[in-house]
Design goal:
355 residues
Length: 355
Amino acid sequence: MRAGDHRNTTTAATVTATRAAPAPAHGPGLAEARGELSAAVIRALRSGGPPAYAPASVLRADPWGEDLHLALYLLYELHYAGFDRVDDEREWDPDLLRLRQDVEARFLHALRTELADGPRTVEEAFAPLLVEPVDLSASLSRRLQTDGELWQLREYAALRSLYHLKEADPHAWVIPRLTGRAKAAMVAIEYDEFGAGRADRIHARLFAELMADLRLDPTYGRYLEQAPAPLLATVNLMSLFGLHRALRGALVGHFACVEVTSSPGSRRLAGAMRRCGAGPAAERFYTEHVEADAVHEQVVRHEVIGGLLAGEPDLEADVAFGCAATVLVEDRLADHIRRAWDRGRSALRTPLPEL
């Protein structure tokens, strides 16, 4: 390790003990590195040791780039399903957490810089989302509804699987940080997201069935290797907000933005699945969201946001920021997909095998 590189504070005995007891096989596998930061994370997770990286590499990293977002995704995933043969204790490893703090600070700074002139009130953030645009030419769901081909629907599902197979999980982290009306309403919506007591109706399960209809592998994390940075940023955003109590207002803003924009887009995507003959489960995932999210939109705006701000009015700017940040990363992803398809190329890092 070069002079000035990050030093491990874990004792040699701890590292030796970690290496002496291989972790059991569970969770998805690790992806291949995309740069210095992601390589440091992957080496650390495979070896059981600390991440070896130059602190300046974080400042050099593109805050929207492949390397930073894969590194951040891998570090966040330790709080979800973990990884095959990676010890569960690494979730709270102080060296990994220190690296995560530096990397997510770089991402958060980029978000705040992009949104320096963004909305500061709930009204400013959500008013544009409550009216269907007259011009839908930039809408990816509209494009898929009218002109999409089956291969494009398969690519879209493979990309979104990293989000939808954990769709409601990070939002659940906000529940113990809410009180009263906001908590009760949030729990009610999450109850629906998790199938209202029925395992076969959990929304993540419904998306896995959509993937099966499209002849995709519904295994959790299966398409990480093929997911580009703009997709990883959408998942990292909700993990960033979910894991920090200080960003609870932003997480509520993210959740509300998803619910407010879901119903119209889901209606168009259900039509796309129907038109391309994707299969009943593929269509059902989106038809389920048309009605459910139309109801959720009202509850989240009036009860979750309303209840939160009634008790903590100083969080309004954070709620607005969470909404605006969600629109920003989703627009970046949609632009990435459109540009790839306009050039006749796959939007994935490597194309799916042909059916």
